[in-house]
Amino acid sequence: APLRQFAMIVLIVAGLVGLALALAFAAFWWRRSNAHQQELALQYRDLAAGIYRQRRLLESITNAMQEMLCLKTSDGHYAYVNPAFADAVGKPADDIVGHTAVELFGSDVAAQEAASDRRALDGAPVTAENSQLELRGRTRHLSTSKVRVCDETGRTTGLVTVTRDESELVEQRLRHERLIRATVAALIRAVEL
What backbone torsions phi and psi does residue 37 show, to the nearest 5 degrees? Predict the structure, then answer.
């Protein structure tokens, strides 16, 4: 009987020691897990703050650009336009996003755009392509560059277009040419006289 009683006490003590060790291990694991969760939360917070800073920087750059900047999806819908683009079209950026060139500019302009879009989507950089476009009741002389956008797998997801309005330069060049022609005509008349 005393041996059985001693064995029972040993088993109970061993069980309590085992339970204490299990509880200690669980507490240690919980604390370590909690610390790891906090480290991950801090890393994610820092990552989110970095992304936010990068986004604000990119946004300030695109908002300050005088060139018209847009991002189109591979199916031709506008996904992003900067304020210069929205101002040139005469609509708020939110009213442009989601629409196509046909909806914004008409089928003739969209057909011209579609050809250069296809070349850029196929991988050929489209640089300094000159065109004329009627924007807000005025003919604009535009110089456009396009490049495709790919995801991490290399699949084409869209197209970035940067367009510069060169109307003032073209008008100055035309005025300069008219002035030269007028000067030459005046010299010819003077020589004839």
Answer: -60, -40
